[in-house]
């Protein structure tokens, strides 16, 4: 491990590429949906909160509304 640390000290640094504004927007929306999921979990219960979270995450990843709803219902019930 010390040898690998030594190699990392002298390795040429890679350039840093920051995410595009669209990716940052999706990340913020994902974090917001997870916070809302944690907040609604106690009141709605696990199945319904999970259905809503799965639908919102699927839509963030450009799923169609029908496939997002089907996968949300499937995951909410099966988990």
State the major sheet. Answer: none
Per DSSP, the total helix count is 4
**On the 0-100 scale, what is the average pLDDT?**
91
User: Tell me, what's the shape?
Assistant: elongated
Task: Explain briefly what this protein structure is.
By secondary structure, this protein is mostly helical.
What topology does this entry show?
Blueprint: H1 2-9, H2 21-44, H3 46-60, H4 65-78
Helix pairs in contact: 2-3, 3-4
Structure description:
With 79 residues, this protein is an all-alpha fold. Helix 2 packs antiparallel against helix 3 (46-60) and helix 3 runs antiparallel to helix 4. The termini are far apart. Helices cover 77% and strands 0% of the residues. The chain has helices at 2-9, 21-44, 46-60, 65-78.
Descriptive terms for the model:
0% strand, 77% helix, mainly alpha, single chain, 79 residues
